Amino acid sequence: MIEFTLPKWYDLHTHFRQGDVVAPYIQAHLDMGCVGALAMPNTKPPTAVVFEADEGGEYWSVERYMRDLRDAGGDQFSELIVPLYLTKDTTPEMIRKGAESGTLKACKSYPPHGTTGAEFGIPVTEFIDNGVFAAMEEAGIVLCIHGEEHGLPPEQYFDRAGNAEELFYTERMPRVREKFPNLKIVCEHVTTKVAVDFVHSSGANIVATITPQHLLYTIGNLIQGLKYHLFCLPVLKHCADRDALRAAVAGTDNTKFFAGTDSAPHATKATACGCAAGCFTGGIAPQLYAQAFEMAGVDLSDVQGQDMFKNFLCLNGAAFYGLPVPQETFTLVKEDAPVEMLKTSQGDVTPLPLGLGQQNLPWSIWR
Ligand code: NCD
Ligand code: ZN
User: What is the pTM of this model?
Assistant: First the structure.
């Protein structure tokens, strides 16, 4: 039986939501060896001011959301980051003051209406000219970016010749990189070879997160049987894209690609007129990543393979965000384990494998 021990890790992109569902979502993260998390600000209202004193009716503050998360069990994490949701009302002054106070570590850019809770996003290039990116670069604040072009007609959004992510990384991001060569950027949940190439062709200040589902599956898996639990944004892509993601993480020299699960629970996933975007992988992400690494040809019984996995899950992201590597550890074992529904006050939430009809995972966490 393969077993290996790793430092506890940070999930550097996740969704904990709001209200009394937060506690079970945080517990699921603690259960999978997380020692910290970056919790996304696409709340309702969006977390788009830094300080509680600046909250109007329209926006929540980073201060308040962090407190809510800590009260719901997040105080057991040694690190919690809530990025500021960038909107039309974000100012360079907000960035400067937030950074000085130590409360602001990162900002999140959403493509307008591009995903769940992205109604308040504005085109990323607006921050090039309005001083916000300049203030972030100056203060060392990380830009977390959902890299998809917004407002496209269907045939450009997703087609054989291209898609919203490819357009974003060829048309928009080079301008951001050129104008702000020292801005720290996380290209989040990358799904295409184009995005991977963009990251590889950039300096050490531009890195990327990858989700378990994008390493494991392709659009074909979603379409066969219309497995809607696999529907997340950016949507799954093609085999050549998945190969590029796998190659990016399965090298001994990977310093740029790291874990950010984008675990995005939805109590109501599909309705008669559509499906919420987001895969729930809380509680099982290291197990899914281990499965994906093996599918990428990495031998996890071997020290070199285990090191690749550790770089991706535990070290690269911590280094980029300046977080300490924890002394505490957890152990992954190659042993079948059942996946369970998560009970919340809003009903049962389906973890991704169950949504695909898989009752068991090949890897488990030893407790
Ligand atoms: C996320 C969510 O549900 O909040 N959904 C998703 O498909 N990933 C939003 C996001 O990160 O895009
Ligand atoms: Zn997300």
Answer: 0.98
